[in-house]
Amino acid sequence: MSAIMRRHRLGAYLVGLLIVLGALEIGALAVEASSSPALRWYDAAAQLRVEQMAELDDVDVVFAGTSMAWQGFVPEVWTAHDTAGRRAYNAGMAGGIPEVMEPWLVDVVQPRLRPDVVIWGLSSLDFSASYGAENLERYLDALETRPGLLADVEQAVADISALVRFRNVLRDPSEWGADRGFAAATAILGNDGERRDFVVDTSPERQLQVATRVADFRLDAADISAVHRTVTKLRRSGTDVMFVQLPVPERFVELHPDGPSDVAATRGAIDRLGEILDVTVVDATGGFSDSDFVDFTHLDEASAARLTEQIAQDITGVDVTAAAAVAAQTTDTELLSVANELVAVADQLRSTLTQTDSMPASSEVWNSMVEYGHTRDLWAHHDQGTNFHTIFTGSSLVYAGIDPARYEELTDLSGYNMGLPAGGPEEVGEFLRDIALRTMTPERIILGVAPHDYWTRSAGPSCVDQLNGYKSALQVRLNAFASVDWFQDVPSEQLILGDPVVHDPPRATP
Prior knowledge:
Blueprint: H1 3-33, H2 44-54, E1 61-64, H3 67-72, H4 75-81, E2 88-90, H5 98-113, E3 117-122, H6 124-127, H7 133-141, H8 149-158, H9 162-165, H10 167-170, H11 182-188, H12 204-213, H13 221-236, E4 240-245, H14 250-253, H15 260-277, E5 280-283, H16 301-315, H17 320-327, H18 332-344, H19 350-354, H20 369-383, E6 390-393, H21 396-401, H22 404-411, E7 415-417, H23 425-439, E8 444-447, H24 463-482
Parallel strand pairs: 1-2, 1-3, 3-4, 4-5, 6-7, 6-8
């Protein structure tokens, strides 16, 4: 076959392909014209709000949170009672837990509306470890919010091609005339983004749905970290944040495993986050009863207006613009300061960060001050280029009984005493792997052992208790520092507080 014939055949194939694609595109346009739009965002309400925001100029205040905040804050009421008459928009969303709010606020809402402040309504539903995983998955799977290069290409093509836009719908003919939630979303969506769904529903089915979301309630460290990241990112863009403790009905409180204790723990965590992040926290939990709610979480119309009026009055006089301007100039040094403040109050948030009720052994949230001192010393030596030939480790018998200075005199070899008082073999092993051997490359490790290191104790602390405490304290540090972007790539053995001053290794005691 000649080259000319091959080119003619290839040209015919291309023309045929274009004709087929053109016909498919026309068919897709016809389906789109006779159907609800393709769902490209998290849900139909989010998609409609993106369209609303495209028609708005910059607004002063944005409300955020789950559907509790979406229904609880009324922008029109806010503007009427705010002394400065600031314009507001409600960007809350169904299932908008912090891990969902983070990309929604940072990547979608803030660039479109450029608010001076985000007022974030929070409750135990925001931090329940039993709730939100599916919501985050749905958000990250939507066409417009899917991460990655391929998603970027698909989003760009979808803007000009109904075939790409509607491809999921076209695969299933039963979906061609489907509503995809747009009718319901349109019916409850207010002019300023707020939710207006005041149908009373306290049915057993609704109760079960809400109860499932808090059935295994514990404060989720991932959501707390998401709040921290979101506040930091918004401030860098010139937008400050305020927290509002949302009111909840008693029938919602009773659905928690530990009832009022779980709700109180959440409120305490929100207050501590406010301290850590220097965020104003407004307590709006008082003055509402079950009769003010249409179901287990959402306020009725009159009560939503009353809540919004109350918030507007409470926040009057707060200069959010000035705070946002300062926050936008945040540097890495300031982030380091924030991190230290975060860890300084981490013992107050320990149950949140470790998902236990235990308290730390020291304010620095290390399992023991000796472990903290060892980490500081070893990393400081590493930073100065010093290495130890021998590391001694074991329990307090080693800590109090080995003198590295005398060892060096006798052997001419450098040594470091890494004994851990009350440390069992498991804890000693973990500390060696996590800290010592990541900072030093010793040629010899001498492990001191005694019979009681291996006894099974019927009462009192055991070596396993020490190991659990060690792991719990490590998790506090990792979670606390992980919520600050500055520390994302810092190894765990470097997560120390203050300047790492080198101390002389322990000497033998009498």
